[in-house]
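User: Predict structure, ligand flavin mononucleotide.
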Amino acid sequence: MESKLKGKKIGVALTGSFCTFEKIFIELQKLVDAGADVYTIFSGASQTITSRFGTPEEYRKKAKEITGREPIFTIAEAEPIGPKAYLDALVIFPCTGNTAAKLANGITDTPVLMGAKAHLRNGKPLLISISTNDGLGMNMKNIGVLLNSKNIYFLPFGQDSPMKKPNSLIAHTDQLLPTLELALEHKQIQPILQSF
Ligand SMILES: Cc1cc2nc3c(=O)[nH]c(=O)nc-3n(C[C@H](O)[C@H](O)[C@H](O)COP(=O)(O)O)c2cc1C
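Assistant: Predicted complex:
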């Protein structure tokens, strides 16, 4: 059966949860294989921080190889997502606690947040793939605000390590495609809470 994602223009916005990037690129490839036309956007952190998980140069190269286009790296490049309305859906994949907190409070100071704001103004689905150690702590209130916001959908998430990291919440990134297919119809995949 042909994927519902075939021919859809999907934005994938990467923020600085570097430990998830390996899984993120696997799903990015699946999205392209399903026939989606993919545009990546990098936050300032994700395009500058080198960590034990990799370098910004590697991420940029990988994103270009998989999608066939240069990532969006600046607020100015992300802004036309609003007036041109060219994305069918945008997924913040992964979404840090920092980006979730800013989004819930209307802050627009990174290319990812600019893209999200621009996209939301068009009434199209914005997806969140949460990945934060303070999901059940300081960021719980922001996740609550986003869960209750119009046109925002969540990849299923759960506690990845309740004993070692009691406040950590991580999305099931391998459910990107089904979550997107439903979000394109403005439906939330269920159940949202799924254990690991
Ligand atoms: C190695 C490393 C791993 C990180 N992992 C996470 C993470 O999984 N979740 C998170 O919310 N922040 C994580 N951070 C912190 C964010 O990168 C930091 O808050 C940054 O300001 C996020 O900016 P952004 O949301 O604009 O990408 C990590 C930082 C480093 C250096």
